[in-house]
Structures are given as structure tokens and as C-alpha cells.
Amino acid sequence: MKCIKAWEPQGPLIFMGEEVVARTWTPENARRAGYSQWTDIILYRIDDPAWPDWAYGVQITGRSVLYHGDGGCSRGVRMPVASILNAVDPELYVALEPCTKPGCTPPDLDLLDDDVRVSVEVNRYTWIPCESAVQVVEQLRQSGKALMHSVLEAAVQIDPLIAQAAESVKRH
């Protein structure tokens, strides 16, 4: 068990627990599939008296790899090109793509002066607290997304309570 820092829209959550399983849909995978976004899903087992009603938590982090021009889509955080590399993960910087929607379409970052401002999209966090393994199974199954099902399949192999819940929910 260790101290975990997870995120929700309001900010960080800190609790004692352990990561059960994590799955990522990366920019490279997303681009090959024709998407400009990535998603991390992490399932945590929580063992912390400060959070007595939570047995598990599912953290979903989504981000677009798009940046937008001045007067474009009005999405993201405006910043000078020179500060983008300091503000985002270097791997994500390489993956950033210009928005292609009409009226936005900024030039390649390498062609812009350092003081030109563009808007870079920021992380979107979802935190799903679960009171039981059954609730984890229900949450992961109801989404209909392949990545959520992948997390559930992996969790069934790792966590006996989730495996038991998956069998129980399947029978009803």
C-alpha cells in the first residue's frame, strides 16, 4: 500500500491504496486509429480510513493532442509557443497537431515565432468512486468503451474481489 495522488476535475485526491491496473490509449495509437486524443484509465484499490465509503476508484484522464490558433475554436489554454515545451510533457509536445477545423487551422508550431500565442488543450479528469467491486464491474461495463472493458478484463485477472463480482454480475 502506498500514498496515491489521483485527479478529479476539482483537483488532486490523495489516499492510501494501490494501483490495480492501468491502460492507456496513447497519441501514437490514437493517430494510427485516426483520432487526436489519448486516454489513461487507472483502477485503484483504496485502503484509507479517510475515505471509508470507497473500496475502489477509477480515474480517467483524457486529452486532445490538438492546439488551436488565435480566434479559432476557443479551446484550451492560451500560451506563447516558447512556453509550450515547458508546460507539457516532451512526448506530448512532439505529438501536438494543429486543429483542422475551418477558421482555426494554425500553422505548424515550428513555423511560429516564440511569442505567438496558441491554445493547447488541457487534461480532462473524471473520478468514479466505487463502494464495492460490483460497482467497479458495473461502471466499467456500462461505458461500452473498449478501453474500459480492457481495464475490467485485466482487473479480473489481478483482483479476486473484482473477478468474483464479474461472475456474479454476469449471472444476474
Summary tags:
172 residues, alpha+beta, 5-stranded antiparallel sheet, 4-stranded mixed sheet, 6 helices, 31% helix, 35% strand
As for the number of domains, it is 2
Mean pLDDT: 83
- Summarize the helix and strand pattern as letters: EEHEEEEHHEEEHHH
Instruction: Sketch the major β-sheet.
Output: 5 strands, antiparallel
Low-confidence stretches: none
State which percent range the strand residues make up: 35-45%
Query: What is the tally of helical segments?
Result: 6
Structural class, by secondary structure, is alpha+beta
Percent of residues in helices comes to 25-40%
End-to-end distance: 33 Å
> How are the strands of the largest sheet arranged?
1-2-3-4-9
Rg, Cα atoms, Å = 19 Å
**Tertiary shape:** elongated
SS elements, strand count = 9
How would you characterize this protein structure?
By secondary structure, this protein is α+β, with helices and mostly antiparallel strands. The chain has two domains: 2-63 and 124-171, no CATH class; 66-120, no CATH class. It has six helices and nine strands, in the order E-E-H-E-E-E-E-H-H-E-E-E-H-H-H. It has a five-stranded antiparallel sheet. Strand 1 (2-8) and strand 2 (11-25) form a beta hairpin. It is elongated, with a radius of gyration of 19 Å.
